[in-house]
UniProtKB/TrEMBL annotation:
Residues of the YCII-related domain: 1-111
Full protein name: YCII-related domain protein
Family: Belongs to the YciI family.
Listed Gene3D superfamilies: Dimeric alpha+beta barrel
Top-rank taxon, per record: Bacteria
Length: 121
């Protein structure tokens, strides 16, 4: 089953040295998962100051730059896993360095109806 792990945290919680150490350890974990055939994709996201949000209301496109001010934790990265069950996804999430300072949200990925019927998925 495929799961998306969403990494949330405050960008201010990490010193430069801690951030670099986090990236090294996260890369090591990603490579290990890739070798085991459990990693579909993973990546950190750039700073929330680079974010652009798009909403469509009453047929009109609304574009907002930057992060949501009312949100303490921001989405900082993601992993897409292909593992046997939720327990395995939880075990992996608990190993990720950002779990020690922020939150790792785990959500099952539901294929679109057309993808579910495709013989390649």
């Amino acid at each position: 089953m495929k799961y998306m792990l969403l990494i949330y945290g405050s960008e201010d919680d990490w010193t430069q040295e801690q951030h670099e150490s986090c990236m090294i350890e996260s890369s090591r974990i990603s490579e290990e998962l890739k070798q085991q055939g459990k990693l579909v994709e993973s990546a950190p996201l750039r700073s929330v100051t680079t974010a652009t949000s798009v909403r469509v209301r009453d047929g009109k496109k609304q574009i907002t730059d930057g992060p949501f001010a009312e949100t303490a934790e921001q989405l900082g990265g993601y992993y897409i896993l292909d593992v046997d069950n939720l327990d395995e996804a939880i075990a992996i999430a608990a190993k990720l360095p950002p779990a020690s300072k922020g939150t790792v949200e785990i959500r099952p990925i539901e294929p679109l109806p057309a993808q579910a019927q495709s013989p390649t998925h």
